[in-house]
Each structure stands twice: as structure tokens, then as C-alpha cells.
Design a protein that fits this description.
Length: 478
Amino acid sequence: MPEHVMPRAFHIMAKPTGSACNLNCDYCFFLKKEGLYPGSNFRMADDVHEAYIRQLFEAHQVPQVTVAWQGGEPTLMGLDFFRRSIDLQKKYQKPGTRVENTFQTNGILINDEWCEFFRDNNFLIGLSMDGPKELHDFYRKDKGGNGTFDKVMKAARLLQKHKVEFNILCTVNSKNADYPLDVYRFFRDELKANYIQFIPIVERAESSPSPSPSPDRGEGNNTPLLSGEGNVSAPPSRGEDVSNYSPPSLKTPTLVRGGDEGEGVVTDRSVRPEQWGRFLSDIFDEWVKRDVGKTFILNFDGALAGWLGMAGTVCIFGQTCGEGTALEHNGDLYSCDHFVGPNNLLGNILQTPMIELVASAKQRKFGQDKRDTLPQYCLKCEFVHICNGECPKNRLIKTPDGEAGLNYLCEGYKAFFKHADKPMHIMATLLQQGRLAEEIMRLKELKVRGGENRKEEPGRNEPCFCGSGQKFKKCHGK
């Protein structure tokens, strides 16, 4: 294959246990992937493990290699598997190359021994948590239907005890989306988490269409294809007691339709677009006034990159994608973790080197389709440079003009971008001047659209409040 099409670096999300997990979270789409490998023991064999590490290190032409572990639940492999991985990494590491191991876990099996291993080998841990106990336990349950909050909190405290760096990955669903500040303040104040990522749950039901008009994405987003309809109680509203509420069954979801014509059917566990916009906006208002530079929220960092003209620091906001693939336990490599299905199987690394699969015409087309299938409605949007249509897995509805491929969360993202526009512009200006974004917090009563506290804008010929030294009319008064 011509060298010019070979990426110098790429990301492989390795799933050594496939979709196998020791939890049974109601909204999890990984659990449904077991059907792709009937009869499998869902354990990565030694030859696949070594091929993964060897090919990953051989293919990278940059000074850092990231070895990413996810699932399912990777701790089910046991510590010896990862001790073996460290040995393999040392075997194939090129001189001068830095190695980073990332590890996404639900925390259930984490103990002192795991934490000592993580610390000694500089693992960066992603801990899955949905907020305070009553919100976390609402959907994140074990195989017996019991909440898992207490065990996850124990894991977090152990990681802190052993000084293991960890981030929080919080899914935002129809329940916790109504409590943005409760969720954020819990992570910030009680858990003392400095790095947070919010992932919106958009759970398609089987009657919904493919999210992208591209034929190569023919399996839609490959999230759970749920069947049946049933009558379930609506989630409690803000402030109501949740103790007697039973979440909907996986077998009988209530369907919520997105769009004027009902395209993009999602289950009632999914966050609604307007919820998502409010969730981000409410947290942003508090964060921008007191936590910039102290608490890092990937959603805000990724959006800010768009205001800087650098959209794509997170894959969902990039113009194209395709450099983040998913490796199954048997060596099968898929285009993306959200598109694990026969139509997006690139091949097996035991038969074809992973660099050839990543650089294949099929994978390049997959990534370019993110840009090429964007509706005209999006291309004309004032915020297209920020989100670029977001992730194709969420492009479930039609535009007002009837064109397919509009993101289900569009309404929420637009509301958030409009809300955050002024502060984002200020932070972008500060960064472009070589200053720190956190300087925005020095502005008294920062004016945030929709916020209660407002500061009168300076006169057009007065200095701009961002500190640029320019007149307001030539800076943020444009």
C-alpha cells in the first residue's frame, strides 16, 4: 500500500473481554454484541494479545503510543493478563517512545492489588459513574438488579488512596439529565474529580432508520435494537421521590420519537435534545465562573477548540473520523466502537496487519462520510465549525427540509452553543493572545446568556472586558 496513505498515528480501543461484563446497565449497547460471537469465551488469546501490541508499536511513527483497554469490562481478564501486556510493551517499545495505558472500568473488581499495578505502570483510569447514588443506581445495576454506587465509590477512594490518576465518564440519560448541578457538584466536591466527560445516551430502537445515508454504515449505530412496546411509568420529575420508581425493562421500552415526522426513534432512557442542551448550559454557567483551569470537562474543551478553529480535538466534533477503531477479543478490527457489526468489519489482525486495515479505502471512506453526508441544513448552520454534525451514530432524524442525516441532539447542541458563545469567544481570544483561559473568571459577574448575573457591556469605544486592549467595538462588541 502506498506509504502516503498510512497514518503516522491512530487509536485502537482494545476489548480483551469483548462485550462481556459483570454489570447489566439498562442502557448498555455493548451487552447486545455478544450475539456477534456465539459460543465465544470472550477472552483475548495470547496470539491476539501479542499481535495487537507488536503491530501497534510497529505502526506508530510518533513518540507516544497509547494502549487503550475497554470492554465490556477489562478487569474480568485478571491482573496477569495486563502484567503480560506490560512485558509485551517493553519487548516491542521503540527507543525513545513513551507509552501510555488507558483503562476504562466500572470499578466493581478494583482492589488494592489492581491499584498498585495501575500506579506502578502509570495507567490512566476512566471510571464509569452517573452521579450521586440515587442517579447512578437508577440504571447502573449488577446482574441481580442491585445498584452499584457503593462499590464504585469504594473503587474511587482506592484509586485516590494509591494516587492513581483517574477521569470520570458519566453517561447522561433521561434521568440524571434533569439534575446537572447535582451531578457536577458531586463529581467536583465530593469525588474531587478533576477530569470529567459527559456522554449522551441516544439509544435507538429497532424501528428507527439508519443514522447516515452512507451505505457503508448500513447497520446504523449498532446500539441495542430493542423490540416491543409497553406501558411503563414516566421517570419522576425534578425533586420527586425516586425510591418506588421502576426503570423500564430492556424488553419493553417506551419509544420517544425525534423530529417532526417521527424519524429517529429512541427509547425513553435516552436524553432528550432539550435536556442535553440545558444539562451542558447549566454546568457551563457554574464552571466558567469558578472552575476553568481547575476542573476539566472534555465536552467544553472540545467545543472551545472549535471557537479556536481547531475542531476535532475530540472525534465527535471533527470534520472527519476513522482513526479510532475497535479491536475485538478475537482480533477482529471494526471501523468504530459505535459501529461494531458485519458491515463495518475491516478484517482480522492475525490475517492482515492492522496498519493496512486502518489505512484501507473502506476505512478512509467511513471517516470521510462523516463530512460528505452532512446535510445542507448543517452546512449553513452558524455552529457547523464547532460540531461538524457531531457523531454519525446520532444522525437519526431529518432536517426541516426533509434531508436525512440530522443529528438527534442538534436542538440541544445549538442551544448550548448559543448560550456559551460569548464566554467561548472570550476564552478563545485569551488563548490566542498566549494567556490562560482561566483569566475569564476575573471578570466580575461574567455575562452569560440566560444567566441571572449580568454585567453591562462597555461602551463601543471603551476597552473590551476580555483584556485584549482593543476597543470593545473591535473585539467582543462586533
